Amino acid sequence: xxxxxxxxxxxxxxxxxxxxxxxxxxxxxxxxxxxxxxxxxxxxxxxxxxxxxxxxxxxxxxxxxxxxxxxxxxxxxxxxxxxxxxxxxxxxxxxxxxxxxxxxxxxxxxxxxxxxxxxxxxxxxxxxxxxxxxxxxxxxxxxxxxxxxxxxxxxxxxxxxxxxxxxxxxxxxxxxxxxxxxxxxxxxxxxxxxxxxxxxxxxxxxxxxxxxxxxxxxxxxxxxxxxxxxxxxxxxxxxxxxxxxxxxxxxxxxxxxxxxxxxxxxxxxxxxxxxxxxxxxxxxxxxxxxxxxxxxxxxxxxxxxxxxxxxxxxxxxxxxxxxxxxxxxxxxxxxxxxxxxxxxxxxxxxxxxxxxxxxxxxxxxxxxxxxxxxxxxxxxxxxxxxxxxxxxxxxxxxxxxxxxxxxxxxxxxxxxxxxxxxxxxxxxxxxxxxxxxxxxxxxxxxxxxxxxxxxxxxxxxxxxxxxxxxx
Length: 471
What we know:
five-stranded parallel beta sheet; Enolase-like, domain 1; single chain; FAD/NAD(P)-binding domain
Protein backbone atom coordinates (compact mmCIF):
# COMPACT_ATOMS: atom_id res chain seq x y z
CA UNK A 1 0.00 0.00 0.00
CA UNK A 2 1.26 3.51 -0.86
CA UNK A 3 2.24 6.11 1.74
CA UNK A 4 -0.87 7.28 3.63
CA UNK A 5 -2.70 10.37 2.43
CA UNK A 6 -3.01 13.28 4.84
CA UNK A 7 -6.80 13.25 4.61
CA UNK A 8 -9.76 11.98 2.61
CA UNK A 9 -12.86 14.17 2.32
CA UNK A 10 -16.02 12.14 1.71
CA UNK A 11 -18.68 14.38 0.16
CA UNK A 12 -18.42 17.52 -1.95
CA UNK A 13 -21.34 19.55 -0.63
CA UNK A 14 -21.02 22.80 1.29
CA UNK A 15 -19.23 21.22 4.26
CA UNK A 16 -16.95 19.19 2.01
CA UNK A 17 -15.98 22.21 -0.09
CA UNK A 18 -15.30 24.29 3.04
CA UNK A 19 -13.05 21.51 4.33
CA UNK A 20 -11.37 21.25 0.92
CA UNK A 21 -10.51 24.96 0.96
CA UNK A 22 -8.57 24.55 4.22
CA UNK A 23 -6.99 21.23 3.28
CA UNK A 24 -5.59 22.57 -0.02
CA UNK A 25 -3.81 25.37 1.86
CA UNK A 26 -1.88 22.78 3.86
CA UNK A 27 -1.30 19.70 1.73
CA UNK A 28 -1.64 18.22 -1.72
CA UNK A 29 -1.83 14.68 -0.34
CA UNK A 30 -5.61 14.41 -0.16
CA UNK A 31 -8.61 13.01 -1.98
CA UNK A 32 -12.13 14.36 -2.20
CA UNK A 33 -14.63 11.69 -3.17
CA UNK A 34 -18.28 12.23 -4.01
CA UNK A 35 -21.07 9.80 -4.87
CA UNK A 36 -23.75 11.21 -7.15
CA UNK A 37 -24.02 14.71 -8.62
CA UNK A 38 -21.40 17.31 -7.80
CA UNK A 39 -22.46 20.93 -7.23
CA UNK A 40 -23.85 21.00 -3.62
CA UNK A 41 -27.39 20.45 -2.40
CA UNK A 42 -27.90 24.18 -1.87
CA UNK A 43 -27.14 25.13 -5.46
CA UNK A 44 -28.81 22.12 -7.12
CA UNK A 45 -32.00 21.45 -5.18
CA UNK A 46 -32.04 23.55 -2.03
CA UNK A 47 -31.53 27.16 -1.03
CA UNK A 48 -31.08 28.73 -4.45
CA UNK A 49 -33.76 27.16 -6.70
CA UNK A 50 -36.32 27.45 -3.92
CA UNK A 51 -35.59 31.18 -3.55
CA UNK A 52 -35.94 31.66 -7.31
CA UNK A 53 -39.40 30.06 -7.07
CA UNK A 54 -40.33 32.19 -4.05
CA UNK A 55 -39.28 35.42 -5.77
CA UNK A 56 -41.50 34.63 -8.74
CA UNK A 57 -44.42 33.76 -6.46
CA UNK A 58 -44.11 36.94 -4.40
CA UNK A 59 -43.75 39.12 -7.49
CA UNK A 60 -47.00 37.67 -8.88
CA UNK A 61 -48.74 37.93 -5.50
CA UNK A 62 -48.02 41.66 -5.31
CA UNK A 63 -50.78 42.19 -7.88
CA UNK A 64 -53.30 41.91 -5.03
CA UNK A 65 -52.04 45.21 -3.62
CA UNK A 66 -52.15 47.14 -6.91
CA UNK A 67 -55.67 48.52 -6.45
CA UNK A 68 -54.74 50.00 -3.07
CA UNK A 69 -51.78 51.73 -4.71
CA UNK A 70 -54.01 53.13 -7.44
CA UNK A 71 -52.61 50.75 -10.04
CA UNK A 72 -55.16 49.19 -12.40
CA UNK A 73 -55.22 46.10 -14.60
CA UNK A 74 -53.85 43.54 -12.16
CA UNK A 75 -56.63 41.08 -13.03
CA UNK A 76 -55.09 40.61 -16.48
CA UNK A 77 -51.85 39.18 -15.09
CA UNK A 78 -51.26 35.44 -15.25
CA UNK A 79 -48.54 33.09 -14.05
CA UNK A 80 -47.01 30.89 -16.76
CA UNK A 81 -45.88 28.07 -14.48
CA UNK A 82 -43.76 26.21 -17.08
CA UNK A 83 -41.88 29.46 -17.76
CA UNK A 84 -41.46 30.10 -14.03
CA UNK A 85 -39.94 26.64 -13.56
CA UNK A 86 -37.77 27.05 -16.63
CA UNK A 87 -36.27 30.23 -15.15
CA UNK A 88 -35.73 28.45 -11.84
CA UNK A 89 -33.75 25.73 -13.63
CA UNK A 90 -31.74 28.25 -15.66
CA UNK A 91 -30.70 30.10 -12.52
CA UNK A 92 -30.08 26.80 -10.76
CA UNK A 93 -27.76 25.63 -13.54
CA UNK A 94 -25.76 28.85 -13.27
CA UNK A 95 -25.42 28.46 -9.50
CA UNK A 96 -24.34 24.83 -9.92
CA UNK A 97 -21.74 25.83 -12.51
CA UNK A 98 -20.28 28.22 -9.96
CA UNK A 99 -20.12 25.49 -7.33
CA UNK A 100 -18.48 23.08 -9.75
CA UNK A 101 -15.60 25.47 -10.32
CA UNK A 102 -14.39 24.63 -6.81
CA UNK A 103 -13.60 21.05 -7.89
CA UNK A 104 -13.20 21.14 -11.68
CA UNK A 105 -9.42 21.49 -11.68
CA UNK A 106 -8.45 19.08 -8.89
CA UNK A 107 -7.25 16.39 -11.27
CA UNK A 108 -6.45 13.08 -9.58
CA UNK A 109 -7.32 14.54 -6.16
CA UNK A 110 -10.99 14.35 -7.18
CA UNK A 111 -12.81 11.01 -7.37
CA UNK A 112 -16.41 10.11 -8.24
CA UNK A 113 -17.46 6.98 -6.41
CA UNK A 114 -18.71 5.37 -3.22
CA UNK A 115 -16.51 5.61 -0.13
CA UNK A 116 -16.77 3.10 2.70
CA UNK A 117 -14.85 3.30 5.95
CA UNK A 118 -12.72 0.29 6.78
CA UNK A 119 -11.54 1.88 10.03
CA UNK A 120 -10.47 5.31 11.32
CA UNK A 121 -7.50 5.45 8.91
CA UNK A 122 -8.61 3.36 5.96
CA UNK A 123 -11.19 4.08 3.26
CA UNK A 124 -12.41 1.89 0.39
CA UNK A 125 -13.39 3.76 -2.77
CA UNK A 126 -15.10 1.46 -5.27
CA UNK A 127 -12.89 -1.49 -4.37
CA UNK A 128 -9.59 0.31 -3.84
CA UNK A 129 -8.34 0.82 -0.28
CA UNK A 130 -6.64 4.11 0.66
CA UNK A 131 -4.68 4.62 3.87
CA UNK A 132 -5.04 8.10 5.37
CA UNK A 133 -3.99 9.96 8.49
CA UNK A 134 -7.47 11.48 8.88
CA UNK A 135 -10.96 11.36 7.41
CA UNK A 136 -13.53 14.11 6.94
CA UNK A 137 -17.10 12.87 6.47
CA UNK A 138 -19.40 15.42 4.82
CA UNK A 139 -21.93 13.22 3.05
CA UNK A 140 -24.90 15.55 3.55
CA UNK A 141 -28.54 14.53 3.74
CA UNK A 142 -31.57 13.77 1.60
CA UNK A 143 -35.33 14.36 1.90
CA UNK A 144 -37.25 12.01 4.19
CA UNK A 145 -39.93 10.02 2.34
CA UNK A 146 -41.83 7.06 3.85
CA UNK A 147 -41.03 3.98 1.79
CA UNK A 148 -44.70 3.20 1.13
CA UNK A 149 -45.13 6.59 -0.54
CA UNK A 150 -42.57 5.77 -3.21
CA UNK A 151 -45.29 3.68 -4.87
CA UNK A 152 -46.83 6.93 -6.15
CA UNK A 153 -43.87 7.29 -8.51
CA UNK A 154 -43.24 10.67 -10.09
CA UNK A 155 -46.32 12.11 -8.39
CA UNK A 156 -44.40 11.98 -5.10
CA UNK A 157 -42.09 14.97 -5.13
CA UNK A 158 -39.30 16.28 -2.92
CA UNK A 159 -36.93 19.19 -3.31
CA UNK A 160 -34.73 16.77 -5.28
CA UNK A 161 -37.37 16.43 -8.00
CA UNK A 162 -39.72 19.42 -7.67
CA UNK A 163 -37.72 21.85 -9.78
CA UNK A 164 -37.29 19.33 -12.61
CA UNK A 165 -41.03 19.25 -13.31
CA UNK A 166 -42.13 20.89 -16.58
CA UNK A 167 -45.27 22.05 -14.76
CA UNK A 168 -47.25 21.25 -11.59
CA UNK A 169 -50.72 20.70 -10.23
CA UNK A 170 -53.21 22.09 -10.40
CA UNK A 171 -53.89 20.35 -7.05
CA UNK A 172 -50.97 19.72 -4.75
CA UNK A 173 -50.45 18.64 -1.15
CA UNK A 174 -47.45 19.53 0.99
CA UNK A 175 -46.75 17.16 3.89
CA UNK A 176 -44.71 18.80 6.63
CA UNK A 177 -44.72 22.48 7.58
CA UNK A 178 -41.22 23.06 8.81
CA UNK A 179 -39.12 25.67 7.00
CA UNK A 180 -39.12 23.89 3.63
CA UNK A 181 -42.82 23.03 3.70
CA UNK A 182 -43.86 26.56 4.63
CA UNK A 183 -41.74 28.13 1.90
CA UNK A 184 -42.85 25.79 -0.88
CA UNK A 185 -46.54 25.60 0.01
CA UNK A 186 -46.93 29.37 0.13
CA UNK A 187 -44.95 29.92 -3.07
CA UNK A 188 -46.96 27.37 -5.06
CA UNK A 189 -50.25 28.70 -3.71
CA UNK A 190 -49.27 32.22 -4.73
CA UNK A 191 -48.48 30.98 -8.23
CA UNK A 192 -52.08 29.80 -8.53
CA UNK A 193 -52.02 26.14 -7.47
CA UNK A 194 -54.63 24.69 -5.12
CA UNK A 195 -52.46 23.83 -2.13
CA UNK A 196 -53.40 21.79 0.93
CA UNK A 197 -50.71 21.68 3.61
CA UNK A 198 -50.49 19.16 6.47
CA UNK A 199 -48.42 18.91 9.63
CA UNK A 200 -48.64 16.56 12.59
CA UNK A 201 -47.53 19.25 15.04
CA UNK A 202 -48.91 22.57 16.20
CA UNK A 203 -45.90 24.71 15.32
CA UNK A 204 -44.80 26.09 11.97
CA UNK A 205 -41.46 26.95 10.34
CA UNK A 206 -39.45 26.24 13.47
CA UNK A 207 -41.23 28.82 15.64
CA UNK A 208 -41.95 27.96 19.27
CA UNK A 209 -43.69 31.15 20.44
CA UNK A 210 -47.45 30.36 20.53
CA UNK A 211 -48.43 33.93 19.61
CA UNK A 212 -46.23 33.93 16.52
CA UNK A 213 -47.39 30.46 15.49
CA UNK A 214 -51.01 31.59 15.63
CA UNK A 215 -50.18 34.70 13.60
CA UNK A 216 -48.28 32.74 10.95
CA UNK A 217 -51.01 30.10 10.70
CA UNK A 218 -53.63 32.79 10.09
CA UNK A 219 -51.50 34.38 7.37
CA UNK A 220 -50.81 31.07 5.62
CA UNK A 221 -54.50 30.21 5.60
CA UNK A 222 -55.07 33.23 3.39
CA UNK A 223 -53.16 31.40 0.64
CA UNK A 224 -53.92 27.71 1.23
CA UNK A 225 -55.79 25.07 3.20
CA UNK A 226 -53.80 24.22 6.34
CA UNK A 227 -54.43 21.17 8.52
CA UNK A 228 -52.48 20.80 11.77
CA UNK A 229 -52.26 18.25 14.55
CA UNK A 230 -52.83 14.90 12.82
CA UNK A 231 -50.71 12.54 10.75
CA UNK A 232 -51.32 12.49 7.01
CA UNK A 233 -52.29 9.18 5.35
CA UNK A 234 -52.05 8.71 1.58
CA UNK A 235 -53.88 6.31 -0.73
CA UNK A 236 -54.66 5.96 -4.42
CA UNK A 237 -58.23 6.95 -5.41
CA UNK A 238 -59.95 7.66 -8.71
CA UNK A 239 -58.73 11.04 -9.89
CA UNK A 240 -55.52 11.26 -7.87
CA UNK A 241 -53.97 10.77 -4.44
CA UNK A 242 -56.18 11.13 -1.38
CA UNK A 243 -54.52 12.75 1.62
CA UNK A 244 -56.37 12.15 4.89
CA UNK A 245 -55.53 13.84 8.17
CA UNK A 246 -57.95 13.36 11.02
CA UNK A 247 -61.38 14.28 9.66
CA UNK A 248 -59.89 16.16 6.71
CA UNK A 249 -59.75 14.71 3.19
CA UNK A 250 -58.37 16.13 -0.03
CA UNK A 251 -57.59 14.61 -3.45
CA UNK A 252 -54.54 16.01 -5.24
CA UNK A 253 -52.49 15.43 -8.37
CA UNK A 254 -49.08 15.53 -6.69
CA UNK A 255 -47.64 15.43 -3.18
CA UNK A 256 -44.51 17.14 -1.90
CA UNK A 257 -42.83 15.39 1.02
CA UNK A 258 -41.31 18.10 3.22
CA UNK A 259 -40.85 16.16 6.43
CA UNK A 260 -37.23 16.99 7.06
CA UNK A 261 -34.03 15.31 5.94
CA UNK A 262 -32.05 12.21 6.89
CA UNK A 263 -28.25 11.95 6.94
CA UNK A 264 -26.51 10.04 4.16
CA UNK A 265 -24.72 7.47 6.31
CA UNK A 266 -26.01 4.13 4.99
CA UNK A 267 -23.23 1.77 3.91
CA UNK A 268 -20.65 4.33 5.06
CA UNK A 269 -19.10 1.92 7.55
CA UNK A 270 -19.35 4.04 10.69
CA UNK A 271 -19.57 0.81 12.69
CA UNK A 272 -15.90 0.14 11.83
CA UNK A 273 -14.79 3.12 13.92
CA UNK A 274 -15.25 1.23 17.17
CA UNK A 275 -17.36 3.91 18.88
CA UNK A 276 -20.98 3.72 20.09
CA UNK A 277 -23.68 4.61 17.56
CA UNK A 278 -27.12 5.94 18.46
CA UNK A 279 -30.47 4.64 17.23
CA UNK A 280 -29.95 6.48 13.93
CA UNK A 281 -26.54 4.90 13.44
CA UNK A 282 -24.66 8.11 14.25
CA UNK A 283 -21.68 8.57 16.57
CA UNK A 284 -21.37 11.45 19.03
CA UNK A 285 -19.68 14.46 17.40
CA UNK A 286 -18.12 17.34 19.34
CA UNK A 287 -19.76 20.49 17.86
CA UNK A 288 -16.70 22.61 18.68
CA UNK A 289 -14.17 20.34 16.93
CA UNK A 290 -16.34 18.11 14.65
CA UNK A 291 -14.32 15.18 15.97
CA UNK A 292 -15.71 11.72 16.65
CA UNK A 293 -14.36 10.74 20.07
CA UNK A 294 -10.58 10.94 20.01
CA UNK A 295 -10.33 9.48 16.50
CA UNK A 296 -8.79 11.25 13.49
CA UNK A 297 -12.28 11.28 11.99
CA UNK A 298 -14.46 14.39 11.65
CA UNK A 299 -18.17 14.51 10.78
CA UNK A 300 -19.37 17.87 9.42
CA UNK A 301 -22.45 19.44 7.88
CA UNK A 302 -25.93 17.96 7.47
CA UNK A 303 -24.61 14.44 7.99
CA UNK A 304 -24.16 15.06 11.73
CA UNK A 305 -27.74 16.45 12.05
CA UNK A 306 -26.67 19.19 14.51
CA UNK A 307 -27.94 22.26 12.64
CA UNK A 308 -28.74 21.52 8.98
CA UNK A 309 -28.21 25.03 7.59
CA UNK A 310 -25.76 26.13 4.91
CA UNK A 311 -23.79 28.62 7.00
CA UNK A 312 -23.46 26.05 9.77
CA UNK A 313 -22.29 23.41 7.28
CA UNK A 314 -19.68 25.82 5.93
CA UNK A 315 -18.45 26.53 9.47
CA UNK A 316 -18.28 22.85 10.30
CA UNK A 317 -16.39 22.04 7.12
CA UNK A 318 -13.93 24.81 7.93
CA UNK A 319 -13.45 23.43 11.46
CA UNK A 320 -13.05 19.87 10.19
CA UNK A 321 -10.61 20.90 7.46
CA UNK A 322 -8.38 22.66 9.98
CA UNK A 323 -8.58 20.01 12.69
CA UNK A 324 -8.06 17.04 10.38
CA UNK A 325 -4.51 18.27 9.66
CA UNK A 326 -3.70 19.75 13.07
CA UNK A 327 -1.59 17.97 15.74
CA UNK A 328 -4.30 18.78 18.28
CA UNK A 329 -7.88 19.80 17.39
CA UNK A 330 -8.86 23.41 18.11
CA UNK A 331 -12.14 24.05 19.92
CA UNK A 332 -14.06 26.74 18.05
CA UNK A 333 -16.66 29.08 19.50
CA UNK A 334 -19.78 28.61 17.41
CA UNK A 335 -21.87 31.47 16.12
CA UNK A 336 -25.23 32.53 17.55
CA UNK A 337 -27.96 30.27 16.23
CA UNK A 338 -29.83 31.87 13.34
CA UNK A 339 -32.48 30.35 11.10
CA UNK A 340 -34.55 32.18 8.50
CA UNK A 341 -37.57 30.96 6.55
CA UNK A 342 -38.27 32.92 3.36
CA UNK A 343 -42.02 32.92 3.62
CA UNK A 344 -43.92 36.20 3.37
CA UNK A 345 -43.65 37.59 5.96
CA UNK A 346 -40.18 36.24 6.73
CA UNK A 347 -39.91 33.93 9.71
CA UNK A 348 -36.77 33.76 11.85
CA UNK A 349 -35.46 32.37 15.11
CA UNK A 350 -32.40 34.00 16.68
CA UNK A 351 -30.58 32.31 19.54
CA UNK A 352 -32.30 29.58 21.56
CA UNK A 353 -36.04 29.04 21.04
CA UNK A 354 -38.21 30.76 23.62
CA UNK A 355 -39.63 27.32 24.51
CA UNK A 356 -36.16 26.42 25.77
CA UNK A 357 -35.74 29.57 27.92
CA UNK A 358 -36.53 29.91 31.63
CA UNK A 359 -39.94 31.60 31.66
CA UNK A 360 -39.40 32.95 35.19
CA UNK A 361 -36.26 34.90 34.30
CA UNK A 362 -37.14 35.94 30.75
CA UNK A 363 -38.83 39.16 29.69
CA UNK A 364 -40.68 39.31 26.35
CA UNK A 365 -40.97 42.48 24.32
CA UNK A 366 -43.33 42.43 21.37
CA UNK A 367 -44.36 44.61 18.44
CA UNK A 368 -47.13 44.13 15.91
CA UNK A 369 -46.60 45.28 12.33
CA UNK A 370 -50.33 45.75 11.71
CA UNK A 371 -50.10 49.50 12.26
CA UNK A 372 -46.38 50.01 11.64
CA UNK A 373 -45.94 53.09 9.47
CA UNK A 374 -43.44 51.90 6.86
CA UNK A 375 -45.15 48.51 6.56
CA UNK A 376 -48.50 50.23 5.93
CA UNK A 377 -47.08 52.33 3.09
CA UNK A 378 -45.97 49.14 1.35
CA UNK A 379 -49.23 47.24 1.98
CA UNK A 380 -47.17 44.72 3.98
CA UNK A 381 -48.50 45.54 7.44
CA UNK A 382 -48.78 42.09 8.96
CA UNK A 383 -46.74 39.98 11.34
CA UNK A 384 -45.17 40.32 14.76
CA UNK A 385 -41.76 40.47 16.42
CA UNK A 386 -40.87 39.08 19.86
CA UNK A 387 -37.55 39.74 21.61
CA UNK A 388 -36.48 37.91 24.77
CA UNK A 389 -34.22 39.36 27.44
CA UNK A 390 -32.80 38.28 30.79
CA UNK A 391 -34.75 40.03 33.56
CA UNK A 392 -31.77 40.50 35.87
CA UNK A 393 -29.24 41.87 33.37
CA UNK A 394 -31.39 43.08 30.49
CA UNK A 395 -29.15 41.14 28.07
CA UNK A 396 -30.84 40.14 24.84
CA UNK A 397 -31.20 36.35 24.76
CA UNK A 398 -32.87 35.83 21.42
CA UNK A 399 -35.87 36.56 19.25
CA UNK A 400 -38.59 34.95 17.17
CA UNK A 401 -40.31 36.88 14.44
CA UNK A 402 -42.74 36.81 11.58
CA UNK A 403 -42.31 40.19 9.90
CA UNK A 404 -41.88 41.86 6.52
CA UNK A 405 -38.18 41.76 5.53
CA UNK A 406 -37.52 39.86 8.74
CA UNK A 407 -34.32 38.39 7.25
CA UNK A 408 -32.63 41.75 7.87
CA UNK A 409 -33.97 42.17 11.38
CA UNK A 410 -32.82 38.63 12.16
CA UNK A 411 -29.22 39.42 11.21
CA UNK A 412 -29.25 42.59 13.33
CA UNK A 413 -30.63 40.65 16.29
CA UNK A 414 -28.13 37.81 15.86
CA UNK A 415 -25.29 40.34 15.96
CA UNK A 416 -26.75 41.86 19.14
CA UNK A 417 -27.09 38.46 20.83
CA UNK A 418 -23.57 37.41 19.89
CA UNK A 419 -22.17 40.71 21.18
CA UNK A 420 -24.14 40.21 24.42
CA UNK A 421 -25.85 43.59 24.11
CA UNK A 422 -28.63 44.58 26.48
CA UNK A 423 -32.04 45.97 25.63
CA UNK A 424 -30.83 49.37 26.80
CA UNK A 425 -27.69 49.10 24.66
CA UNK A 426 -29.86 48.56 21.62
CA UNK A 427 -32.28 51.36 22.49
CA UNK A 428 -29.28 53.68 22.66
CA UNK A 429 -28.53 52.93 18.99
CA UNK A 430 -29.94 55.04 16.11
CA UNK A 431 -33.19 53.99 14.42
CA UNK A 432 -33.93 55.83 11.20
CA UNK A 433 -37.45 56.93 10.31
CA UNK A 434 -39.41 55.57 8.51
CA UNK A 435 -38.03 52.02 8.43
CA UNK A 436 -39.24 48.55 9.25
CA UNK A 437 -36.50 48.43 11.91
CA UNK A 438 -38.56 50.85 13.99
CA UNK A 439 -40.71 47.84 14.83
CA UNK A 440 -37.67 46.41 16.61
CA UNK A 441 -37.41 49.59 18.66
CA UNK A 442 -41.07 49.19 19.65
CA UNK A 443 -40.43 45.63 20.84
CA UNK A 444 -37.30 46.73 22.73
CA UNK A 445 -39.24 49.52 24.44
CA UNK A 446 -41.86 46.98 25.47
CA UNK A 447 -39.14 44.81 26.99
CA UNK A 448 -37.47 47.82 28.67
CA UNK A 449 -40.68 48.64 30.54
CA UNK A 450 -40.31 45.31 32.31
CA UNK A 451 -36.63 45.82 33.21
CA UNK A 452 -34.87 47.97 35.80
CA UNK A 453 -34.74 51.60 34.61
CA UNK A 454 -31.69 52.91 32.83
CA UNK A 455 -29.95 56.17 33.79
CA UNK A 456 -32.09 59.25 33.09
CA UNK A 457 -29.47 60.83 30.81
CA UNK A 458 -29.23 57.72 28.64
CA UNK A 459 -31.03 58.08 25.30
CA UNK A 460 -32.21 54.50 25.72
CA UNK A 461 -34.94 56.03 27.91
CA UNK A 462 -36.29 58.20 25.04
CA UNK A 463 -39.95 57.09 24.86
CA UNK A 464 -42.30 56.69 21.92
CA UNK A 465 -44.22 59.74 20.73
CA UNK A 466 -47.48 57.82 20.62
CA UNK A 467 -48.08 58.77 16.97
CA UNK A 468 -48.07 55.78 14.56
CA UNK A 469 -46.74 57.85 11.66
CA UNK A 470 -43.76 58.98 13.76
CA UNK A 471 -42.97 55.83 15.78
